[in-house]
Specification:
Order of helices and strands: HHHHHHHEEHEHEEHEEHEEHEEE
Radius of gyration: 40 Å
Largest sheet: 4 strands, mixed
Oligomer: single chain
CATH architecture of the largest domain: Up-down Bundle
CATH superfamily of the largest domain: Cation efflux protein transmembrane domain
Strand content: 15-25%
Helix content: 40-55%
CATH topology of the largest domain: Alpha-lytic protease prodomain-like
Structural class: alpha/beta
Number of domains: 4
Strand order of the largest sheet: 7-8-9-10
């Protein structure tokens, strides 16, 4: 990219040098104000081309400690300088044209063959370099190169206006038509009008870039695509700025306050890709803010209060005590190394925040659970047929909803006995009923085998009861029996 932009800018400088020299020589030799105005215009184009060549080299430098957004603004600033130079050209051209039109001052104009040839050469050269500059400007979205391309494409028409003026002067000299001698300064005024038009367009673009104006329609399009990202509740703010050929987008989005940190990162990544559908290769910064969605129920609100304190609650149950009073029971996971007093202080604070944030809750009962942080060593793993038969008899108490238990494993961990097994249940059971049955079986297992410290049951639907789990395999896989 840097090589192509630099090459086309350098070629533009060389062409500007040749055109400026030819126009100046022919303009002074013929006395044509139109050609001299074009020479002055080309001279400033040469300065602009040099500025452009330097700016594209500086603008492509990567960001550093002093320019965190890169050096792209240098292109915008160079385009601003080009605008100022063009306006200075217009001032001189209009001044000289007025002198010749109304005060008849200035050397006589000679419409020579050389004058026509240099203007035709200028038109061909401007056509060639404007196409080359425009192609690279579009490819790399370079405002500086686009400004140069715009200059040189309009130079073609201004050169054509000068040729028309010279032709009318030649006609005036050949057929002795005096009033046609005013055609040359009139052509110069036409050139000035073209320059003013080009300058106004370029001025708007450069000033917008320097003042960080958002591209037309970009903000509305970004709001539309971001609002369509799953999980985004609202878009609070969108800010867009441009530096050279790159856009920087800063936006803030609202997510449900129960969303996990990992999920918020996923949503932010999806939002970034959505923004780049509108502004490709944009540098996007997404700020996420917690919001309470309209569809949030009481259970979500309880979890949200806990999440706000970086705590995790589960097995939440709510009872209606009547008269608008609700009672909440929940399980709270806390670090296993906390003392009872410290853990109770955490619970007291959490319950206070829940009653304050959810006024309809009048009472809360929290069951504290230790959150394991230690990997336990298993003494042995065995398949106990006797225990399995005892468990199978218990399962019959829950028939027909529970069909069987299988894959029974017995472990000893720290001198305590653990049992894990798989249980097949009917496909259509709601998950709440499945949980009730599992809890009831765990209680019955412990009643029939008091030596058990912990029982863990993995439930499976009837259509998939062949699925098993081999805990002796260090890399567990699903298998079919």
């Amino acid at each position: 990219m840097r090589a192509e932009k630099g090459a086309v800018a350098q070629n533009s400088v060389m062409a500007a040098v040749a055109i400026t020299l030819f126009k100046a020589i022919v303009g002074f030799s013929t006395g044509s104000l139109g050609i001299l105005s074009e020479a002055a215009h080309s001279g400033l184009d040469l300065i602009a081309a040099i500025i452009t060549m330097v700016s594209v080299r500086v603008a492509d430098k990567p960001a550093d400690a002093d320019h965190q957004y890169g050096h792209g603004k240098f292109e915008n600033f160079s385009a601003f300088l080009e605008t100022a130079l063009l306006l200075l050209t217009c001032v001189w051209i209009v001044y000289e044209a007025v002198r010749r039109l109304f005060f008849h001052r200035g050397p006589p104009v000679e419409a020579t063959l050389a004058a026509f040839m240099v203007m035709l050469f200028s038109m061909v050269t401007d056509w060639w370099r404007s196409r080359a500059l425009k192609r690279i400007a579009i490819r790399y979205d370079s405002q500086a190169l686009a400004a140069d391309a715009l200059h040189f494409s309009t130079d073609i028409w201004s050169s054509f206006a000068v040729i028309i003026g010279l032709a009318l002067v030649w006609t005036a000299n050949h057929f002795k038509i005096g009033w046609l001698h005013a055609a040359d300064p009139v052509a110069a005024l036409m050139v000035a009008a073209v320059i003013v038009y080009v300058s106004s367009r370029l001025a708007r673009q450069t000033i917008d870039a320097l003042l960080d104006a958002a591209p037309a329609g970009a903000r509305a399009n970004i709001l539309t695509v971001v609002a369509g990202v799953r999980g985004v509740l609202e878009v609070d703010r969108v800010r867009i700025r441009r530096g050279g050929n790159r856009y920087f987008v800063d936006l803030s989005i609202g997510l449900s306050r129960t969303v996990t940190f990992q999920r918020s990162e996923q949503v932010a990544a999806e939002v970034t890709e959505a923004v780049r559908q509108v502004l490709p290769e944009a540098d996007v910064v997404v700020h996420t803010a917690a919001r309470a969605p309209r569809s949030e129920n009481l259970f979500d609100r309880v979890r949200a209060v806990a999440t706000h304190s970086n705590l995790n609650v589960h097995d939440i149950s709510v009872q209606d005590l009547g008269h608008g009073q609700l009672h909440v029971e929940q399980h709270l996971e806390l670090a296993e190394n906390l003392t009872l007093k410290d853990a109770h202080d955490v619970v007291t604070q959490l319950e206070s925040e829940m009653r304050s944030g959810i006024p309809e809750i009048t009472s809360i009962l929290t069951h504290m659970e230790s959150e394991p942080a230690t990997i336990e060593s298993v003494d042995n793993v065995q398949h106990d047929l006797t225990l399995e038969r005892r468990l199978q008899k218990i399962v019959k108490e829950f028939s027909p909803e529970v069909l069987d238990v299988h894959e029974v494993r017995v472990k000893r961990v720290g001198g305590k006995m653990y049992v894990s097994c798989h249980s097949t249940m009917q496909d259509g059971l709601p998950l709440s009923r499945v949980h009730e049955l599992s809890t009831a079986m765990e209680i019955r297992f412990k009643q029939k085998a008091p030596e058990l410290f912990r029982v863990l049951i993995h439930t499976e639907p009837q259509t998939d009861n062949a699925r098993g789990f081999d805990i002796s395999d260090p890399s567990p896989q699903t298998k079919k029996e």
